[in-house]
Specification:
The complex is a heterotrimer of chains A (284), B (231) and C (575).
Chain A: H1 2-33, H2 40-56, H3 64-82, H4 91-113, E1 127-130, E2 133-136, H5 137-159, H6 161-171, H7 173-178, H8 183-205, H9 215-230, H10 235-255, H11 258-275
Chain B: E1 4-15, E2 18-29, E3 33-37, H1 44-52, E4 59-64, E5 67-68, H2 74-81, E6 82-85, H3 97-102, H4 114-119, H5 121-125, H6 136-149, E7 154-158, H7 166-181, E8 185-189, H8 193-199, E9 202-207, E10 210-216, H9 222-229
Parallel strand pairs in B: 3-8, 3-9, 6-7, 7-8
Antiparallel strand pairs in B: 1-2, 1-4, 4-5, 9-10
Chain C: H1 3-17, H2 20-46, H3 54-71, H4 81-103, H5 108-127, H6 129-132, H7 150-173, H8 175-192, H9 197-223, H10 233-246, H11 252-268, H12 275-289, H13 293-297, H14 299-306, E1 315-316, E2 330-339, E3 342-351, E4 357-361, H15 368-375, E5 383-388, E6 391-392, H16 398-405, E7 407-410, H17 422-431, E8 448-449, H18 451-459, H19 475-488, E9 493-497, H20 505-522, E10 525-529, H21 533-539, E11 542-547, E12 550-555, H22 557-562, H23 564-571
Parallel strand pairs in C: 1-8, 4-10, 4-11, 7-9, 9-10
Antiparallel strand pairs in C: 2-3, 2-5, 5-6, 11-12
Classes of the chains: A mainly alpha (284), B alpha/beta (231), C alpha/beta (575).
């Protein structure tokens, strides 16, 4: 019994951390630029394919990280310059444009890689005992890395000069401009950061899930739900959202099966969208 | 005009299709304050926004030490040497007072603000507080201190005294006069005539988007100015 | 020959020009087109983008599947078949009402809710195997009696498509369609004319759900099976692409998009693997640069086919429900409005009386526009009440205040509907307080006119060039158009927020004339927020001075000018 509780607890922690990390890129772009990036899931997908590619070529797993940053960073930059730049503050148009972008990336991946499911061999095989329960080592690494990434990002955002300037730009763009901040450059940097974060989380999950062109669809919704439930604009909100969505999913799945877990997540998210679209944690 | 730090010639502009400023000219030299007066809705804030680049000029010229800058965007004008205090949304609400002050500086040292803390001890006491939690008047003081401390050649202040206690308005006047002596040029939009009188070298009085009266503080008497301010 | 007739001739020609397989393909894509027309109606007309519209297609398909299977033993059950489509429409309407009422907005969040619902439906249909047949779906659905040949199926699909297009055309030509397009451009302004915009949007969403449902119902009979794919993301996405690429702003656009992209996709998907990448690129390009889609490119042809629009005579509108009713007293009693920490209105008392022209003046941030927002129901008072006669306005929705109390408003920045014609702009104002729910479905109601409109047209010639778009007008003309619209509603109280902002002195003096004339001609009370003292001097019977969210002074223009308190806030002093 005790083992079961321990196993479920660590599963829950794993699910919540993973979800929070997957949501970071979406949260950065939505929270700071007001763009609901529906192609977020596709950037995760591309990140995961980077891991597939490096493994196929026999390179070390970690080389997927620079590759993902290079690929998704440049795609993100081109998209920002060609499309997003003219659409900021037109939320609805950005929604349609990124929806089209998600389609484009998905179909491109399908054309290049085909529809088959790929798997990536885990870089950390074996298990480690946690409270007497053997647990996959790579999952533990995900928990550790994910928690660190969230923590570092929160600190950076709250204190670094660039973080402060981004917040200044978001909160009061007119004043930021008249202080000499180049809103264009900051916005492009923020968008690229968001796509890179998505890609990195994609690399991270590649050894854990089947990789295929349509995998992004599920992630964009789940991570959007995290943000809807948590509330925009703070890392705390993101963690709350991941706790609520990941926690509910894990709990319901544990007692019945995964489908009901997913169902309950959708119902919770719709309830939030409907009744409390600003989420649990509202900044300020 | 040749020795003007900032000059604007025949400036026209507004919002959407609405003309608010209709062909206004003026200039300000080094070590000089130009006060823009007028009832509300006559185009004072619009004029300052045109100068800063928040609104595009429909026609006319803006010269910074003789160079045309009306085509530059706002952040470029700022780097050219213009500071700005808006009338509304004066500070970054979700940044601390300290971060509001040091956002653009090369370092986060507070030494350069000592003169301001001496006049406005409240700023020093509230350094860690979020600027959004300050009162309207306190925000004005913060915004004012931030802009003046940038030490740029030209400073544009849009109603700095609105909502500020008289005692602190006098401190503002003293600080403005200090920077003036150091060679700064300022364009200040004001509603409070008594404050304007303590700082202005020259006046520009607007009505319905046009200049209706202008001159040095010696040329103009109080009654003339008041006739354009009262309802 | 009109474009519609040309389209019908193409439909009739297909069976003879192509083979059996093409016919079968076309019958399927006609049904998808029916659903895509629904998406186009929502997105192109009302500006609401449904990302999960397959939901309604699928619900109807499953329901129709159940009915058809049951009908094998009890043929009378087949009479229930139309209900399948109707239920889909009703569900869509209900979702619309619930969400629009609650969230108010119809942007991204609504789109995401529809997407989530469609995924939810996919999960339910996949997992509730005992009812839906699970992943393999409902199989062996008998076709409707008489619809067992390819030709008959083609005819049925074509008939459904033509019927939906005809219905859609009627809706778009009726006042309801004009209101939808107005909502897409400026929902707030429509509400201030007294229309329940949330209801109108929900009706649009319901109708688009009904259209999708019609497609789904016939689909079940035609295909003989229904799988979870028909409620899911894939079809939802295709519907959006088809509608966009074809042209969401028109009815034919989504049809052309569906037939062209849909059939090409099914041909090329397997042979040319970058085909769908190409579709995605064209979607992005169309959405960003050619919102009118493929149909937009054919506009000149369509116009040539349709010829010149016939000019028909105006029809006298019924008398406004507000006509002649004397204005009652508008009273603001101890009203407080907060935004976070800031007090915008601070226990404001304002008795605006029931006649004449009053002016509200005061420095920036005094709470003038907020006062109007509280009266017209757009801003909530945390304390205090606003009453009109014995009617309490404080808890009423903005559209009900405009409709019931007859409070008309002109906004600070001219808010006309830029993409509608001048005639349509004026017509929307005329419908306020005159058009019943059924009038909104009568196309000829768009030709209404009234004595006031005729007089306004005499004063301002540009109001007669009805076909011009409002976006082509100058700033001054837009100000006057919005003022005319506010007057045409024959309000009992007319609230004007800086009616002369940005006008030249000449334009200002004609606006002053019109305001005075309107107050006499309609007997309404006028309240004006104004900075321009020359206007106040000419018009005001009474002047109210606001400062820091409270009433500082009231009186005649002379009394206000002599008031020391007022002088001090306007020139500043040692506060």
């Amino acid at each position: 019994m005790q083992d079961l509780i321990a196993a479920q607890t660590i599963n829950l922690i794993y699910a919540v951390t993973l979800l929070a990390v997957l949501s970071l890129g979406l949260a950065v772009i939505f929270g700071l630029l007001g763009v609901l990036n529906l192609a977020h899931g596709e950037f995760i997908m591309l990140g995961a394919y980077c891991a597939v590619v490096v493994r196929q070529n026999g390179w070390p797993f970690l080389t997927a990280i620079p590759l993902a940053i290079l690929v998704c960073g440049s795609i993100g930059y081109v998209i920002e310059v060609l499309i997003m730049r003219r659409l900021y503050r037109r939320t609805f148009d950005t929604l349609v444009a990124t929806w089209g972008l998600s389609l484009l990336l998905r179909k491109s991946a399908e054309a290049v890689f085909g529809l088959t499911y790929r798997s990536v061999e885990t870089p950390l095989p074996g298990t480690i005992d946690v409270f007497g329960v053997p647990y996959p080592a790579y999952r533990l690494a995900v928990i550790g890395l994910g928690a660190t990434a969230i923590f570092v990002l929160a600190i950076w955002y709250g204190n670094s000069r660039t973080g402060l300037r981004i917040r200044a730009m978001t909160g009061n763009p007119e004043l930021a401009q008249s202080l000499g901040l180049s809103v264009k450059r900051l916005a492009a940097g923020t968008f690229v950061t968001g796509t890179c974060l998505a890609a990195l989380s994609g690399v991270m999950i590649a050894p854990l899930v089947p990789v295929f062109p349509y995998m992004g669809l599920d992630y964009v919704l789940r991570t959007f739900f995290v943000i809807v439930v948590g509330g925009l604009g703070s890392v705390i909100g993101l963690v709350y959202g991941a706790l609520a969505i990941g926690g509910l999913d894990s709990a319901v799945s544990a007692f019945s099966n995964g489908t009901y877990g997913y169902l309950s997540v959708i119902v919770l998210a719709i309830a939030f969208l409907w009744l409390r679209p600003r989420g649990i944690h509202v900044r300020g | 005009m040749s020795n003007a730090r900032l000059a604007f010639v025949d400036l026209t502009g507004g919002y959407g299709g609405a003309i608010v400023v209709r062909g206004i000219s003026g200039n300000v030299r080094a070590g000089e304050v130009l006060c823009v007066l007028g009832r509300n809705g006559v185009g004072k804030s619009t004029l300052v926004k045109l100068l800063m680049g928040h609104l595009r000029c429909w026609s006319g010229e803006i010269l910074h030490t003789g160079t045309a800058i009306q085509h530059l965007e706002c952040s470029a004008r700022s780097r050219y040497g213009i500071s700005y205090c808006p009338q509304e949304r004066t500070v970054f609400d979700d940044l601390s007072v300290r971060n509001n002050l040091t956002l653009m500086g090369d370092n986060r040292d507070l030494g350069r603000f000592e003169a301001y803390f001496a006049r406005f001890p409240i700023l020093k006491r509230r350094l860690k507080q979020q600027a959004g939690s300050l009162s309207g008047g306190e925000k004005k003081i913060l915004s004012f201190s931030r802009a003046l401390s940038e030490g740029k050649g030209v400073t544009l202040l849009d109603e700095p005294s609105e909502g500020v206690q008289w005692e602190n308005i006098l401190h503002m006047a003293a600080l403005i006069n200090d920077s003036k002596r150091a060679g700064a040029s300022m364009v200040i939009v004001e509603q409070n005539l008594e404050f304007a009188e303590t700082i202005a070298d020259r006046y520009l009085v607007l009505d319905q988007g046009r200049v209706v009266l202008e001159g040095t503080r010696r040329d103009l008497n109080r009654e003339d100015l008041l006739s354009h301010l009262h309802v | 020959m009109s474009a519609a007739k040309a389209g019908i001739m193409v439909v009739l020609a297909v069976p003879f020009a192509f083979g059996e397989y093409a016919l079968y393909q076309m019958s399927l894509y006609f049904l998808y087109a029916v659903a895509a027309v629904g998406v186009g109606l929502c997105w192109g007309q009302v500006g609401v983008l449904p990302l999960g519209h397959a939901l309604f297609f699928g619900i109807a398909a499953y329901l129709a599947g159940f009915v058809l299977i049951a009908g094998d033993n009890a043929p009378w059950l087949l009479l229930l078949l139309p209900l399948a489509a109707l239920v889909a429409g009703i569900i869509a309407f209900a979702i619309g009402i619930l969400v629009f009422r609650r969230v108010g907005e119809s942007g991204p969040y609504f789109s995401m809710i529809t997407l989530a619902l469609s995924l939810l439906a996919f999960q339910v249909t996949t997992n509730w195997a005992s009812l839906t047949g699970g992943f393999d779906g409902l199989k062996d659905i008998p076709s409707l009696p008489g619809l067992d040949s390819t030709m008959a199926n083609y005819a049925a699909s074509a008939a459904a498509l033509v019927a939906v297009l005809a219905g859609g055309h009627w809706l778009m030509a009726s006042p309801l369609g004009v209101l939808w397009r107005a909502i897409a451009q400026n929902e707030r302004r429509v509400a201030l004319f007294g229309f329940n915009t949330n209801l109108l949007k929900a009706v649009a969403f319901g109708i688009s759900g009904l259209f999708a449902g019609i497609g789904g119902t016939i689909y079940a009979s035609q295909q003989g099976f229904v799988t979870p794919q028909v409620v899911g993301f894939g079809l939802s996405a295709e519907l959006v692409i088809w509608a966009a690429v074809g042209g969401r702003g028109s009815l034919v656009g989504p049809v052309i998009g569906t037939l062209l992209i849909g059939t090409l996709t099914s041909e090329l998907r397997d042979t040319f693997r970058f085909w769908e990448v190409l579709t995605a690129v064209s979607f992005i390009v169309v959405v960003l640069f050619f919102p009118s889609g493929l149909v937009g490119l054919m506009d000149p042809v369509v116009r040539w086919l349709d010829g010149k629009p016939k000019v028909r005579d105006d029809i006298e509108a019924p008398v406004s429900v507000r006509n002649g009713a004397p204005p009652r007293r508008l009273k603001i009693d101890q009203v407080t409005v907060r935004a976070g920490e800031v007090l915008i209105l601070d226990r404001l008392n304002l008795d605006l009386g029931s006649k004449g022209i009053s002016c509200i003046i005061g420095p920036n941030g005094a709470g003038k526009t907020s006062t109007f927002n509280v009266v017209s129901g757009e801003m909530r008072a945390s304390q205090g009440v606003v009453t009109y006669g014995d009617l309490v306005l404080t808890r009423m929705a903005a559209h009900r205040i405009a409709a019931t109390a007859g409070i008309g408003r002109k906004l600070q920045f001219p808010s006309v509907f830029p993409d509608l014609s001048i005639a349509e702009n004026l017509a929307i104002a005329l419908w306020s307080g005159r058009a019943s729910a059924s009038d909104l479905l009568r196309p000829w109601v768009r030709r209404w006119t009234s004595p006031l409109l005729r007089q306004l047209r005499l004063r301002y010639a540009f109001l007669s060039s009805g076909a011009r778009k409002a976006s082509e007008l100058s700033h001054g003309e837009r100000q006057i158009l919005e003022l005319s619209m506010a007057i045409l509603t024959e309000p009992r109280i007319l609230l004007l927020d800086e009616p002369c902002a940005g006008l030249s002195p000449d334009e200002t003096s004609t606006v002053i004339d019109v305001i005075r004339w309107a107050s006499e001609a309609t007997g309404c009370a006028v309240v004006i927020i104004e900075h321009d003292m020359s206007l106040v001097l000419k018009l005001a019977d009474a002047v109210y001075v606001l400062h820091n969210g409270t009433l500082l002074a009231r009186g005649s223009v002379k009394e206000i000018q002599a008031n020391e308190d007022v002088r001090s806030i306007y020139a500043g002093n040692r506060k």
